[in-house]
Amino acid sequence: MNTVLRLPALKPAGLGLALAAALAVPLISDPGTASMAVFITMYVGLATAWNIMGGYTGYISLGHAAFFGFGAYTLGLFLVHLGIPAGYQPFLLVPVAGVLTALLAALIGWIALRTRAATFVIVTIAFMFMLQLLAENLVNLTGGGAGLGLPVPSWGGDFFAIPFYYAMLALAILGVTVSWVIRRSKFGLGLLAIRDDEDKALAVGVPTRAFKLAAFVISAALVGMIGGVYGYFITYIYPQFVVDPLIGISMVLMVFFGGLGTLSGPVLGAIVLEWSQLQFAYHFGASRLYLIFYAAVFLLVIRFLPQGVVPSIADLVARRRHGRAAGPPGPASDSAEPPTRIRPGLASP
Amino acid sequence: MSLLEIANLGKRFGGVVAVDNCSLSVATGSITGLIGPNGSGKTTVFNLVTGFIPRDRGDVVFKAQSIAGLPPDQIYGLGIGRTFQLARIFPRLTTLENMLVPVRRAGWRALLSQRQWSHEQDRAMDMLESMDISQVAGTLGGALSYGQRKLLELAAVMMARPELVLLDEPAGGVNPVLLERIADHIRQLNAQGVTFLLVEHNMGFVMKLCDEVVVLHQGRVIASGNPRDVRANPAVLDAYLGA
Amino acid sequence: MTLVLEAAVLGILTGGVYALMASGLTLIFGVMRIINVGQGALVILGAYLSFVLFRTWHVDPFLSLIVTMPVMFALGVVLQLIFIRPLTTDREALSVLVTYAIALGIEGILGYIFSTNYVQLRAWYETASFAIVDFHITYVYVFGFLLCLAILGALFLMLYRTTFGAAIRATMLNRTAAQLIGIDVDRVAALAFGIGMATAAAGGVVFGITNAFNPGSHYDLISRLLTIIVLGGLGSLRGAVIAALIMLVTEDITAVVVSPVWASFAFFVILVAVLIVRPQGLFGLRVRDRI
């Protein structure tokens, strides 16, 4: 069903082109666009990272904003309390924020993954608010509701967003690469098996709890690193703006829009939706009107494209190509042989 | 010599005794049938042996080692595979991917090793070939026919080379032609050294295939032995006729 | 000591309100196996409806329930029909997102109409209090508690004394079996969703009198309600009521003994402890549909 995205010659060329375009963005754009590009690449990374847990295993986390905020605070606290000057050194601490976020995720995952999917959703939400509360209450450490000021880099003006853009881009590429490697591995197959039928996966030896935990930790670590860069970018962090439920739900929406459990879906979803959201904010100001826009997109996508854009388009193209033969999986009849002989391979979107 | 030894196994669900002091053994290299009227506890025994539900008491010994209390994935890792009633496969994975899910030797290196991975894919294709379903290797599991799912489930369980396989109604809902094919596959695998314990309602299938039959009634073993003797046992007839 | 006692009494009184709000949530989960992340937003919507009636026609908040509960019930049925019923594949995951989207939509619309300034429902019983021995209790808590008790009582009566209630309980136990014996589970689901919304309206009034709220208040609320139903055990009405009382009493006592800023934290500490010891919650069955 995903033939369209597997045309062998097209893929490396397309990837190379996309990469070149991404690298060139700051050179050809004005400062306003560069800062927009920071947000878009940030969400490409976030959606891709979320998809490693939510898309592959089917365990929906609505609390990934907790890891985002934790990463931001970790980096911020390092800078403030260790007295690290602004400049390029703070970027070197981003992996440290990732490691610490991974540890937190391991702890949370250990507790939350004792339960099945329904409770997991709830626990992730609860943990997010718990973290928000901690950030507010540990005033001596985080500055509480008054916020935490980070050192401001000396490069200013038009150049300001550009280092952050490349940092976000590097993390987005890291995320996509990790996601791709996982999707191609036996580990990734185990995750998809959990999504389809967790008990059956257990019956064929998949250590489901360890797999889920690993996916959760990897996903959270990526989100934590992105949060770290974001915190440094905005230079002043408040509990409700980094541990923001809306950031958490945005990544989920982007993944669903693009295609849950696919590799390119989250990337596409993040680019389209974050770009629209920025346009929306630009034209209608900071009003929360875009919440209505978000809600509408969400409801429309789930109603009409429950698989997301990428798989739906892939389906459409495949159907064109094979006549009606290679349609989506339908209910199987007992006697019918499948209509087409499809090249054996892994269905990798 | 017995490969699997179940001793005094017991399980209640609320006030209902599902399995009551059940003891039985499966000889190495045998095809053993576990039969009994509906609700006699056959599937519960499977779920207890494979670690899906915790037992209340008793012990399960596999290759002279107690496996009671272990989680299902570890039990599979030790060499006990199982199928489910109504053939459970992963509907959103292709047939080939379904074959590659099983994990026998965990450990991250094995999971990420590229060489072993491609080796495994070759073996999966061979296995699909031997089950005559290699033509659907790239089809999503959800689009397979019921018969193909049955064969795929069996093939996938075999991927990790289990020594003992528990089959839950391998003949259930299957047409006579396919039934013969499934029986052949089981015989073939048995000849290669795989031991089978199967739950089945189709008595013709059981009588033809099994060397040994155990009869369960109300969670207890009421008879066991070779198929012909068991069929002639009056207690078995009573159980089935509801006396 | 008196302070602690007072906090405990207050905890029980507010616990009743949370029990009501959480009961709708757990009922919806029980019947449809979906987590209604929008319940918090619907409570806030209910509060705003009463707020409008109060501001425009000076309708007493409690009295306004005569209007808002049926309105919210109808809205619930409509939402269920339009957005939830069409979900066929992957219902559990998609329903979370649909209800989250509904919450965002409500937050956006309310924010557009009312701005994000905090408002509060006003009534004479909001500040007036009476004294028992040493401590003072504001009337609104007692009235709110009694109201919630009455509605919860009605809910239990309906569930355990009527045919429709039996149909709901059958659907909660086993959807397929309920269908087999001729229960129209789709209708049950729609009505249960409506009932859940009606309880949200009632909860919203009491919440709106005792708290200042704005369109974004639903985040805090939903995290508490979800925590309560997990603690009580998903789908258990009795569990939700008991969990709500435990949570709120603990919270109010923490506020007195430790500090008000850590009060909400006690909530989550209990949740974590329960998840470690008993992942299925106090009264829950393990959510494991099939083996």
Q: Would you give an account of this structure?
A:
The complex is a heterotrimer of chains A (349), B (243) and C (291). By secondary structure, chain A is mainly α. Chain A contains 16 helices and 2 strands. Chain A has a two-stranded antiparallel ribbon with strand order 1-2. The radius of gyration of chain B is 18 Å and the shape is globular. The longest helix of chain B has 17 residues, at 114-130. With 243 residues, chain B is α/β, with parallel strands linked by helices. A 6-stranded mixed sheet of chain B has the order 6-7-8-3-9-10, with helices on both faces. In chain B, strand 4 and strand 5 (65-66) form a beta hairpin. The longest helix of chain C has 31 residues, at 2-32. At the A-C interface, helix 6, helix 13 and helix 15 of A face helix 4, helix 9 and helix 11 of C.
Helices and strands in order, then pairings?
The complex is a heterotrimer of chains A (349), B (243) and C (291).
Chain A: H1 10-28, H2 31-57, H3 65-81, H4 89-92, H5 94-112, H6 117-137, H7 139-142, E1 148-149, H8 161-184, H9 186-196, H10 198-203, H11 208-234, E2 236-237, H12 239-242, H13 245-258, H14 264-284, H15 289-304, H16 309-321
Chain B: E1 2-13, E2 16-27, E3 31-35, H1 42-49, E4 57-62, E5 65-66, H2 72-78, E6 80-82, H3 95-100, H4 108-112, H5 114-130, H6 146-158, E7 164-168, H7 176-191, E8 195-199, H8 203-209, E9 212-217, E10 220-225, H9 227-232, H10 234-241
Parallel strand pairs in B: 3-8, 3-9, 6-7, 7-8
Antiparallel strand pairs in B: 1-2, 1-4, 4-5, 9-10
Chain C: H1 2-32, H2 39-57, H3 61-84, H4 91-114, E1 129-132, E2 135-138, H5 139-161, H6 163-173, H7 175-180, H8 185-210, H9 218-232, H10 237-257, H11 263-277
Antiparallel strand pairs in C: 1-2
Helix pairs in contact in C: 1-5, 1-8, 1-9, 1-10, 2-3, 2-4, 2-8, 2-9, 3-8, 5-6, 5-8, 6-8, 9-10, 9-11, 10-11
